[in-house]
């Protein structure tokens, strides 16, 4: 391990800046970190960066946030990981809190509803393209992963919910098939099963906050493949099971995550704010990112030794294929509710067309145009 030529203060300031200005999604954020921290500053080596990226791709959690946590851990262990993670997430968290307050205060105004009419349709297009890219990247020509993807997508669409145990089972199926083992031959070192953290109490006795904390903790433990993977799980709980938000509010929450820098998962802060104000936002964000933090710092010291085990990679491949299938099913469910007229269908279709034509088109810019289109079209009626 190389000797650090930077301080914890410097790493915190860097990730604070990246979290404030880092638009473009996880791939762009990873590229920024490599350009700055490996090539420009030389704070970590190429090998250390690759190890962090590999762990972030294998473990559940938002890719960019996990990589930031790992980079902080490399030389400064828990202190560095904590500072890097908090600094990276804090700016977008504060932004969604501010947007949540504005949304709550002005939510009843016609012009706000018109804005989010266009935004919601555009988000359907953006998520559809995100899902398509994940399909190309993760499934390739693997018939097993395609089968898992289709089964989970159909199940999610028909049930309008995401079954966590079905997704875990997909990982087990992939593990068994790809490693050619039988169920009774399981060994503890063959693969890494998800870790569940039992929350016994919160600082408040509020039952809703307790329920929120446990729900978002489980959500954070199953963000495989992409930050978008949390969308179907959140929809099933927040809208279908608990009824905390309606369909329109949920899509608006996803849109807010798209127009702010940082991980898409930060949508939980906006959702938490709409449900229970600032305490709800804080608990939702903390509970969601805690598994991400633990899944990075706990295996970090052992990753070089165990990270390349075929059983572990097969298990993660199966879960990732299932997560992408859940995204596909959720897109269909949300589209069925959001695309209710010709105009909304046109906005979604144009959004997809623009993303195909201009591959580097910033998503916040696309959402801005969709918002203006919604304001103009709905404002005329």
In short:
This protein has 381 residues and is mostly helical.
Describe this structure in words.
This protein has 381 residues and is mostly helical. It folds into two domains: 77 residues; 270 residues, no CATH class. It has 15 helices and no strands. Helix 5 crosses helix 10, helix 5 runs antiparallel to helix 13 and helix 7 runs antiparallel to helix 13. It starts with 7 loop residues before the first helix and ends with a helix.
Percent of residues in β-strands = under 5%
Helix content: over 70%
Instruction: Please tell me how large the radius of gyration is.
Output: 20 Å
Largest sheet: none
Element-level helix/strand string? HHHHHHHHHHHHHHH
Output the structural class.
mainly alpha
> What is the mean predicted local confidence, pLDDT?
82
- The total of helices stands at 15
What spatial form do the alpha-carbon principal axes imply?
Answer: globular
Sum up the structure in keywords.
381 residues, mainly alpha, 2 domains
List the helices and strands and how they pair.
Blueprint lengths: L7 H14 L3 H16 L5 H13 L4 H44 L3 H29 L4 H17 L4 H16 L27 H14 L9 H12 L5 H13 L7 H31 L5 H4 L3 H29 L3 H16 L5 H17 L2
């Amino acid at each position: 391990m190389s000797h650090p030529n930077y301080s914890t203060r410097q790493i915190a300031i860097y990730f604070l800046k990246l979290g404030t200005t880092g638009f473009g999604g996880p791939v762009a954020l990873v590229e920024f970190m490599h350009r700055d921290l490996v090539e420009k500053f030389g704070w970590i080596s190429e090998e250390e960066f690759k190890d962090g990226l590999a762990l972030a791709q294998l473990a559940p959690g938002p890719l960019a946030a996990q990589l930031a946590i790992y980079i902080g851990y490399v030389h400064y262990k828990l202190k560095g990981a904590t500072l890097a993670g908090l600094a990276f997430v804090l700016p977008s968290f504060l932004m969604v809190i501010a947007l949540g307050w504005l949304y709550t205060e002005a939510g009843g105004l016609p012009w706000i509803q018109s804005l989010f009419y266009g935004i919601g349709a555009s988000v359907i297009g953006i998520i559809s393209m995100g899902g398509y890219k994940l399909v190309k990247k993760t499934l390739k020509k693997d018939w097993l992963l395609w089968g898992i993807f289709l089964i989970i997508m159909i199940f999610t669409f028909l049930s309008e919910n995401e079954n966590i145990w079905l997704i875990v089972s997909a990982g087990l199926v992939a593990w068994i098939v790809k490693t050619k083992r039988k169920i009774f031959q399981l060994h503890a070192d063959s693969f890494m099963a998800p870790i569940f953290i039992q929350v016994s109490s919160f600082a408040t006795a509020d039952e809703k906050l307790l329920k929120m904390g446990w729900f978002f903790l489980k959500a954070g433990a199953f963000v495989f493949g992409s930050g978008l993977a949390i969308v179907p799980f959140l929809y099933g709980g927040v809208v279908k099971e608990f009824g905390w938000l309606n369909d329109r509010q949920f899509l608006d929450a996803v849109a807010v995550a798209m127009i702010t820098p940082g991980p898409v998962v930060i949508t939980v802060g906006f959702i938490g704010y709409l449900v229970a104000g600032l305490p709800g936002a804080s608990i939702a964000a903390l509970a969601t990112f805690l598994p991400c933090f633990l899944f990075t710092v706990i295996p970090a010291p052992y990753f070089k030794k165990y990270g390349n085990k075929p059983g572990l990679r097969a298990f993660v491949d199966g879960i990732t294929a299932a997560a992408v299938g859940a995204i596909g099913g959720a897109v269909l469910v949300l589209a069925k509710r959001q695309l209710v007229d010709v105009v909304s269908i046109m906005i979604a279709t144009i959004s997809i067309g623009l993303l195909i034509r201009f591959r580097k088109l910033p998503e916040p810019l696309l959402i801005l145009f969709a918002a203006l289109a919604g304001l103009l079209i709905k404002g005329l009626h």
